Amino acid sequence: MSRKTFRKRLLVGLGVMLLVVSLSTFALAACPSAASLKGKTIYLAMISVPGIPEALSHVGEFEKETGIKVNIEMLPEKTLREKTTADLAFGTGIYDALMFGLMYVTPYAEGNMLMPLSQFVDNEDPFYLNRIKINDYIPRALEVNSYGGNLYGLPFYAESSFHFYRKDLFAQAGLFEPRSLDDIWDAAEKLTNKPDLYGIIMRGIRGGGLNVYTWTSWLWAYGGKYFDDDMKPVLDSPEAIASVKAYADILKAYGPSGVAGFDWSVVATYATEGKTAQFYDATPFVSMIEADTSSTKGKWGIVVPTEIKTPAGSFAPTIYTWSFGMSAHAGEPWATWRFISWLTGYEMSEKLISDGFMFAGALSRKSQVDEHPDTAKTYWAAKTLDALAKAPLDFRPRIKEWPAVGDAIGAALSEVIAGQNTASAAFKAVNKQVYRIMERAGAYK
Amino acid sequence: MKDKHVLIGFLLPTVVVLATISIYPTYYLISTSLTNRSMASATALVQFIGGRHYLDLLTDPYTFNALKVSVLFTLFTVGVSFVIGMGVAYLLSQDFMQKYAFVRIFFIIPMVMAPVVIGLTWRIMLWPDFGIINALLGLVNLPQKGWLAQAGTALPTVIFIDVWEWTPFVILVLLAGFQSLPKDPVEAAYVDGATSWQVFRHVSLPLLKPIILVVLLLRLIQAFQWADTIIVMTNGGPGVATQTVSFYTYQLAFVSFDVGRASAMAVIILIITILLSTALVRSLRRKQ
């Protein structure tokens, strides 16, 4: 074969390849008829968060209407992450769709493991779009599920944070609703009566989604940051160290011993058993403190973090979502899209409202407050929406290295809370560690 | 010729099974440890990077901390469970204990419980203000603590839980060993005027050495690879106080998604385990 013929054949080959790729993209994006999806089977991996069991009780209706068979694997959080990440990374295609927390949007999207959902929104039949009502999702919840201008996850659950305080105990002590960091310290000091009552409790156990989650609000409160503009870590800044010191000091002084091992479930137990006067944690805690089994039901007040004055302005509300996304290797993209958009869509939300489900501190849609006869009346609903709206988009840095970075910071923070190390020494060391993680990941090339 | 075929026929299934479940995964582990393979990208090119992960891990303070924690954990948990297990097994093997044989059933319970259940149960029992352990300690005026959340107590506490979980295994295996010992040498020693301790030390123990070797080897391998309950109980904390090598490997693989680095760490664990096991086998054989 001459060189000329070879080039010609190469060009023709490349042209055919391009055509195939463009046709397959078109085939993926074009909206199919409902009839063509009948008989398809899809596989999902998910975790049970508030509202999921209730929503899944309607899956039979979806299957009946669409003819799509839905197989669901419910998994604990760690197992879900292990199985789905391995499936996505190695392209085994076991799951068509999966549920993930917001800190995994960037790693998955940047690693081309998820299918962009914007193409489905753009090509969806108006009939279905109307049933989903994209604009009803809380904007911040959609924003944190986007990467590079593309949507990768449809939020089912979105939470923020409150500062919770015992109204009855505050009133007895002549204290008012805490509106500044000083108020929180003052109340913690006055109300602490160990071991019967602790002044304040927060998460202490290490983890990017555990102690780091609540501490990040304190980092913002002191004007600290994770990274500078060049993505170099600045966890050794005076502001960051001051925030660590304050977080650890208040827990050591007015919290229980062993608080360095507390996750959210232990914090909830102290709150519902009446062992703490204050705590700072996620908005869905309202469902636990106001449950019939809670000995402190009806005794709590909440403050949106932005309403508490701090050295750098105010606390930053946290944000966390559980969303549904589609594997880049999904075998049945349109059938999967129809299911996840139905599960997180407006119609499902209305079904849950008519079932009487209370959206306690976890809201993915505005209508879950506006159109809910009971949720709307609660003291937390509007404040949850407010906190979610004010939560910074990059409350924690949405970078692909976050899981490793968050874990390293969590270990350092728990070390300080446990009294093993000083804030300054621990965070100077972890700053170097984070730099190494980023460097290894190629962030400074 | 026929013999050769028979030999191959017998060996082949073993070779196939070994190749499938052991040789290939080990080869894959080692080859992955020499690449930049990561679960953070489905499409990135997997490149050969030589021993970079090994060099990096060997200069990482977290690796040395994890090794230190694992060695301490292994030494104490294997040592304590062996001493207790040997004592209880010897006691249970005595004739006067035969009527209490039913207690052996209870020894199985910790071993058959799922590690996650063990971790959660102990964690709840060890809670500072609500846990039963602190409540009991309070009754006798002993200090109440957050046992899993303080650097000085976290590792000893998880060692204690592992001893609780795995001593029954040591007891059951050694008990089977004691019961299978030939009676003649023991009786002969008694006839010659040996004390119970002398019989145990100079007759039973030497005869038990092959069983002791198996028990210690299994416990050593299991303890060095220990990570399950720690994930539930302390998540490696406080700080890195309970971060073992296996837990660190898990973090590298499933938190950092760094499969190449996690594989390198797993290879290091494999080498250390082989070295420790070989040393143990040689030491016991030499004494024999």
Shape of chain B: globular
Let me know the largest β-sheet of chain A. 6 strands, mixed
Give helix and strand order of chain B, one letter per element, not per position.
HHHHHHHHHHHH
The third-level CATH topology of the largest domain in chain A is D-Maltodextrin-Binding Protein, domain 2
In CATH terms, the superfamily of the largest domain in chain A is: Periplasmic binding protein-like II
- From the helix content, strand content and strand pairing of chain A, which structural class follows? alpha+beta
Treating each run of at least 4 consecutive H or I residues as one helix, how many helices of chain A?
21
CATH class of the largest domain in chain A: Alpha Beta
Low-confidence stretches of chain A: 14-27
SS strand fraction of chain A? 5-15%
Distance between the termini of chain A: 43 Å
Task: Tell me the layout of helices and strands.
The complex is a heterodimer of chains A (445) and B (288).
Chain A: H1 3-29, H2 34-37, E1 41-46, H3 52-56, H4 59-66, E2 69-74, H5 77-90, E3 97-101, H6 105-110, E4 114-115, H7 118-123, H8 126-132, H9 139-143, E5 146-147, E6 150-151, E7 154-159, E8 161-166, H10 167-172, H11 181-191, H12 211-221, H13 238-254, H14 264-272, E9 278-282, H15 285-289, E10 300-303, E11 309-310, E12 313-314, E13 320-327, H16 333-344, H17 346-354, H18 367-370, H19 381-390, H20 402-417, H21 423-440
Parallel strand pairs in A: 1-2, 1-3
Antiparallel strand pairs in A: 3-13, 4-13, 5-6, 7-13, 8-9, 8-10, 11-12
Helix pairs in contact in A: 12-13, 13-20, 20-21
Chain B: H1 2-33, H2 52-58, H3 61-93, H4 104-112, H5 115-125, H6 132-139, H7 151-180, H8 183-191, H9 196-224, H10 228-233, H11 245-254, H12 259-287
